[in-house]
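Help needed: design a sequence for this.
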């Protein structure tokens, strides 16, 4: 469509900059905008909400905070691609908080289950909760293998 103009600009030495139109200012759209500009594209982001951030944001209403933001970011430890990317976006917190468990759930009887990242800690915890399931727990731990997954570990 722009072929003849492109040739004209080439001939006259005027540089026709490529452009990207981005729908949505979530992390994906914001990243596209930033990396687009870093790679010499003109970028425009259209966002239907009054604030950017998409699912990675929070807002206040009638004294309540509605926080739909990311709580766990997996594979974001120092040296990983995610860490580098989020730093370049200016979205990486200065300090990473490492947690011992991914999630905790309390049963109706009041027993707390922690899904520990460290597989040996998890094994001990599961055994304490349900000694009768020792064989199944050992199979599960074996199937998950070592080393244990970490929330902010190396990929
Ligand atoms: C409660 C919750 C907890 C989460 N926890 C985690 C977590 O712990 N770890 C993790 O890694 N991820 C988590 N996520 C997922 C993570 O937040 C999202 O995967 C990520 O933010 C998605 O980014 P996105 O840019 O692809 O999309 P979105 O953030 O959905 O952004 C899309 C944007 O496009 C806009 N938009 C849509 N249609 C139009 C249109 N027609 N015109 C203009 N604008 C439009 C929307 O308003 C929005 O701002 C969580 C998500 C939620 C909801």
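Sure. Designed sequence:
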């Amino acid at each position: 469509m722009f072929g003849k103009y492109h040739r004209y600009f080439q001939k006259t030495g005027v540089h026709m900059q490529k452009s990207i139109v981005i729908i949505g200012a979530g992390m994906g759209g914001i990243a596209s905008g930033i990396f687009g500009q870093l790679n010499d594209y003109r970028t425009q982001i259209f966002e239907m909400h009054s604030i950017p951030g998409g699912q990675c944001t929070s807002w206040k209403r009638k004294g309540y905070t509605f926080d739909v933001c990311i709580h766990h970011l997996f594979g974001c430890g120092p040296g990983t691609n995610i860490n580098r990317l989020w730093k370049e976006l200016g979205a990486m917190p200065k300090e990473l908080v490492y947690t011992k468990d991914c999630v905790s759930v309390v049963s109706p009887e009041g027993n707390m289950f922690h899904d520990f990242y460290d597989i040996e800690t998890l094994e001990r915890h599961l055994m304490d909760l349900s000694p009768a399931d020792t064989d199944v727990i050992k199979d599960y731990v074996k199937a998950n293998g070592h080393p244990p997954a970490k929330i902010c570990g190396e990929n």
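Residues 99 and 120 are 16 Å apart (CA to CA).
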